[in-house]
Design a protein that fits this description.
- This protein has 448 residues and is an alpha+beta fold.
- The protein folds into three domains: 170 residues, Glutaredoxin; 87 residues, PDZ domain (Pdz3 Domain), CATH 2.30.42; 110 residues, Pdz3 Domain, CATH 2.30.42.10.
- It is 29% helix and 20% strand.
- The protein is built from 13 helices and 16 strands.
- The protein has a five-stranded mixed beta sheet with strand order 1-3-2-4-5, with helices on both faces. Strands 12-13-14-15-16 form a five-stranded antiparallel beta sheet. Strands 9-8-10-11 form a four-stranded antiparallel beta sheet.
- The longest helix is centred in the N-terminal third of the chain and has 20 residues.
């Protein structure tokens, strides 16, 4: 297919759309945004609005695959790959016409046995058969605000084309897709989690405060972590580092293609496996790949203790089979401090502190160690459980040099992961800080 939309054009259009809507968006309340979104989408008539079962019914009657977009409302970050950008794109629109398109704007009542994804995303796409077999996923993120290196309209178009190819081979393609549906979740729907059931129901309350009735994607991840902490358990590492980004193991992907390697980081697990720049990843563990999100789905099945993933690539038109070996603690290669969930982990582990790395040129000066832990407090929470560190005596500008006696935690991600997976709520740990060139030890409670 000839591609008519270029990436620079898309980026210019994104900036224009964001700037042109900023003023009007600021004048609307969250409830107004939600109700306006429903009116506009329903009036346009292209997307089925927040009615998944109707989508499956229509897909079965029409023989089309179904496209489900999970998009929180109101969420400014999601808009970048939604609404006019998607609906009016000259490449995407003809592809969308070949799907039954469903838009889900909250996770209330969402079937978590079917819709399993990185809940720190705010824009997630599922492409399915009418019998609920998953063809693939689309949508990834590795930064709080930047997204261009991870997703694009071109990449979404390539994913849709791949899904149509799988659909055309149905049911022969069914066997290769079985593993794209995961194990049973802790709870069948979000509102059944203990921390959510008292506040939410299975539906949005359009007659009242509709925005406040919405269960956002990240709240599912928060509820999962709370489930472990409330039982005084350490949080499993696969919950702390879900859906690891391929770049953490050296796979730098082209966001405009399905699964094409733009670059391979030297000495990384990907490089050791023999992956090369320009490789087209066809399958991982026999699963066909439509996007980076599909790669993350396969990686998420590999335990923190390590394992091997079989990869088939097309290299200069020739299929090549490689084995990607992931060692013990490989998930720790993935940074987690960009995630929305880091705010909750900050409460649990750091009592509301947010940290940043000390600049390399500061090492060895004014008592800052030349190697090992040196993390500056850039923010101190002020209220409720996020004020635990403030109440323990921590200040902005303090430099942490040991955390629970450990000197090898080199980033905020390292601290959050260590605290959540190794420490139990209710304990109090020593933290050595450098303040005004003097060492001081403070104690910080670990919270649920």
């Amino acid at each position: 297919m000839q591609q008519t939309t270029t990436r620079p054009t898309v980026l210019i259009f994104v900036v224009f759309m964001l700037l042109s809507t900023t003023t009007s968006a600021q004048q609307k309340t969250r409830d107004e945004k939600v109700r306006e979104d429903r009116r506009n989408v329903t009036a346009a008539g292209f997307w089925i609005y927040n009615d998944l079962e109707d989508g499956f019914r229509r897909a079965k009657l029409s023989g089309k695959p179904i496209l489900v977009v999970l998009r929180c409302i109101p969420c400014e970050e999601c808009v970048k790959l939604d609404d006019d950008l998607v609906d009016q794109d000259p490449v995407l629109r003809p592809l969308l016409n070949q799907f039954v398109c469903v838009r889900i704007v909250s996770t209330n009542g969402l079937d978590l046995s079917l819709f399993q994804f990185d809940t720190d995303q705010s824009f997630a796409v599922f492409i399915l058969n009418a019998d609920r077999t998953i063809y693939g996923r689309f949508g990834t993120r590795s930064h709080r605000t930047e997204w261009v290196g991870d997703v694009s309209l071109e990449g979404l178009a390539r994913a849709l084309e791949g899904a149509l190819e799988l659909h055309a081979r149905w049911p022969e393609s069914r066997e290769s897709l079985r593993a794209k549906t995961g194990p049973a979740p802790l709870f069948s729907t979000p509102e059944k989690f203990p921390t959510l059931r008292e506040r939410y129901t299975g539906e949005l309350d359009y007659s009242g405060q509709v925005a406040k009735s919405c269960i956002h994607c990240h709240q599912i991840g928060d509820a999962i972590r709370d489930h472990y902490r409330s039982g005084s358990q350490a949080v499993p590492d696969d919950i702390i580092s879900p859906y690891p980004h391929p770049k953490s193991i050296g796979m730098i992907l082209n966001p405009d293609q399905r699964a094409e390697l733009r670059q391979v980081t030297p000495d990384s697990p990907a490089a050791i496996a023999g992956l090369q720049e320009g490789d087209q990843l066809l399958t991982m563990n026999d699963q066909p790949l439509l996007s980076t999100a599909d790669i993350q789905w396969v990686l998420n099945s590999v335990p923190a203790a390590g394992g091997t993933v079989q990869i088939v690539v097309s290299r200069n038109g020739t299929p090549v089979t490689l084995n990607l070996t992931l060692q013990n603690r490989w998930r720790e290669l993935d940074q987690i401090d960009w995630r929305v969930s880091a705010w909750g982990l900050s409460r649990m582990v750091l009592g509301g502190l947010r940290l940043e790395n000390v600049a390399s040129e500061e090492r060895g000066v004014n008592g800052i160690p030349t190697v090992g832990t040196a993390l500056r407090v850039r923010y101190v929470g002020q209220y409720n459980e996020h004020a635990a560190a403030k109440n323990s005596g921590f200040r902005k500008g303090d430099i942490i040099v040991t955390f629970d006696g450990k000197k090898d935690l080199l980033s905020e991600s390292d601290v959050l992961r260590y605290g959540a997976t190794k420490l139990k709520p209710g304990t109090s740990i020593p933290i050595e800080i450098l303040r005004e060139n003097s060492l001081t030890t403070l104690r910080l409670p670990q919270q649920k």
